[in-house]
Design a protein that fits this description.
Elements lengths: L25 H6 L1 H10 L5 E4 L2 E4 L3 E2 L4 E2 L3 E3 L4 E2 L4 E8 L4 E2 L4 E7 L4 E2 L4 E3 L2 E2 L4 E2 L4 E2 L12 E4 L2 E4 L7 E3 L4 E2 L4 E2 L3 E3 L4 E2 L4 E2 L8
Parallel strand pairs: 2-5, 3-6, 4-7, 5-7, 6-8, 7-9, 8-10, 9-11, 9-12, 10-13, 11-14, 12-17, 13-18, 14-19, 17-20, 18-21, 19-22
Antiparallel strand pairs: 1-2, 15-16
Length: 208
């Protein structure tokens, strides 16, 4: 069985984040996202505006018609467009963008990460400068396998995550093309390019 990857090997900013010293395994981070982000919201200073468990930096913009269900934390100059749906513990780092009609669930986005319109991102970590084009799906649950615990094939062997919900660890500067589908349990290296209409599925070949 292969060892779990360290988040900071894919997303450099994780080391200096509020959670970098507490958790290093990606699916453990997303599993506890509500708790981690909720605590960060509680500790914020006067540069942030709070509405219950939703907090945004005073320079962040949330357009009318967006729905944010806390805990949610928006850092400086983050932008959430009209029609976006943010829920389940979400952190948007500085300059991150969530475009119209996107759903983002239980995820961490770091500096300048962008999700274009009509996309879904679930239970994931997106590195600085990463980009998800329009209509892309980052799935988080193996519905076709009856919700089986997610397994990830790597060059070093198979990682048994022990969790039924996890999307992607998307490295810094990686790009996901329009209408691509990332199946649950993906590790995408910094700077990688996923072409449009591609399916990325890292479930082990031949495994049940």
């Amino acid at each position: 069985m292969s060892a779990a990857p360290a988040i900071a090997d894919y997303v450099t900013a994780w080391r200096d984040s509020a959670w970098g010293a507490e958790v290093s395994v990606p699916w453990e981070a997303t599993a506890t996202a509500e708790e981690l982000i909720g605590q960060a919201v509680a500790d914020l200073g006067e540069d942030y505006i709070r509405e219950g468990t939703v907090a945004r930096h005073r320079s962040a913009v949330v357009e009318p018609g967006a729905i944010l269900k806390g805990p949610v934390l928006l850092e400086a100059n983050a932008f959430v467009a009209s029609g976006a749906y943010i829920r389940g513990g979400v952190h948007l780092g500085e300059g991150c963008i969530v475009a119209p009609q996107c759903e983002v669930k239980t995820s961490f986005l770091f500096g300048g990460a962008k999700i274009a319109h009509l996309s879904f991102v679930g239970d994931s970590i997106l590195g600085s400068g990463s980009n998800v084009e329009a209509g892309a799906i980052i799935a988080n649950y193996r519905n076709e396998r009856g919700g089986a615990a997610i397994r990830i094939a790597t060059d070093d062997g198979v990682i048994e995550t022990g969790t039924t919900k996890f999307g992607v660890l998307l490295g810094d500067g990686a790009r996901v093309g329009a209408n691509a589908v990332i199946a649950p349990g993906a590790l995408i290296a910094p700077g990688a390019i996923i072409p449009r209409l591609t399916l990325i599925d890292q479930w082990p070949n031949g495994a049940g």
